[in-house]
Amino acid sequence: MLSQCIEANVRPYYESPAWLAGLVITALLTLTSTILSIWLISQHFTHYSNAVLQRPITRILLMVPIYSICSLISYISIRNAVYINVIRDAYEGFVVYNFFSLFLEYLGPNQQVRLLKLSQKVPHTMPPPACCFMYDPRNVHFIGYCKLGVFQFVVVRLCTTVASLIMELFGVFCHGSMSMSHGNFYTTVANGLSMGLAMFTLIAYYLPTKSFWLGLFVSILVNSGFIYETKYWTIPEFSIFFQSFIVAIEMVIASIWHLKAFSIQKFVDGPFAPFSVAFWDSFIWLDLIHDFKTTIHYFATYRHIDQSDTRGEFNESSPLVDRN
């Protein structure tokens, strides 16, 4: 049974010189990262010549302004931080899906080519701490297992986000608390397990997980007594300030790195789709729904697939614009 959060007296954090300095820096960082990311997204929309690559790229790029703006608003209005971060947390699962989609496109243009390339690989050990387990990329179901690992995180992240919002409305979520009598503990555990599984299935670490592990690290410091309250702020308030400030710094670094990692240069050769079509193609999520249904159907029938058949059974998502 969850218990109500202990209401702390509102501290005049806005009178603290440190908070005011942090606000100015956070705002400047947010402005910088947002301008850089929006500019790069607009360049991809203007030169939208390869939908299957640029669709996930533009969605990943949008992560930076969403994270930055949500962090700035949370820094200013800590009482509404849980509600604001619902947007960020819900988008996080979508970003993971698009990272994986981008990996698949770089691996090969269709399922047959991907399976053929993977058939030439050798078994590997999982990354620590699961290094005692092996995985075989040559298995015809390997990509399917990876997709399932990604989709479970999308679903779990969405469910825990909604649950956090509901518990906050009833006053039992208690942001930053690791007490088993508060909802934050259970959503943190669920997200951690789901994220760990997603990381292992991707065999890689991805940028948005930083905010989760940062939040968990701060919660541990708070509950261990290393972070304490002052006359300007309570412990939960400081936790939100610190996380928001660090995320703002990370997003500036990410926006600069994106300029090189997702450069527009490889897409400048036309023909280009109209800007409006590119915008619609990137931000309508029909491919996510189609891919999810295809994955579920795949595992409902995968026993009938011959392991020696490198063709696979996945259907490609149907984009709104041509692949090339």
Automatic annotation (TrEMBL):
Entry's Gene Ontology cellular component terms: membrane
Species for this entry: Boothiomyces macroporosus
Principal place of residence: membrane
Protein name (database record): Uncharacterized protein
InterPro entries on file: Ostalpha/TMEM184C
One Pfam family from the record: Solute_trans_a
Keywords: Membrane, Transmembrane, Transmembrane helix
Location relative to the cell: Membrane
Top-level division of the source organism's lineage: Eukaryota
Keyword presence, Aminoacyl-tRNA synthetase: no
Topology versus the membrane: Multi-pass membrane protein
Bilayer-crossing regions: 18-40, 60-78, 148-173, 185-205, 212-228, 240-259
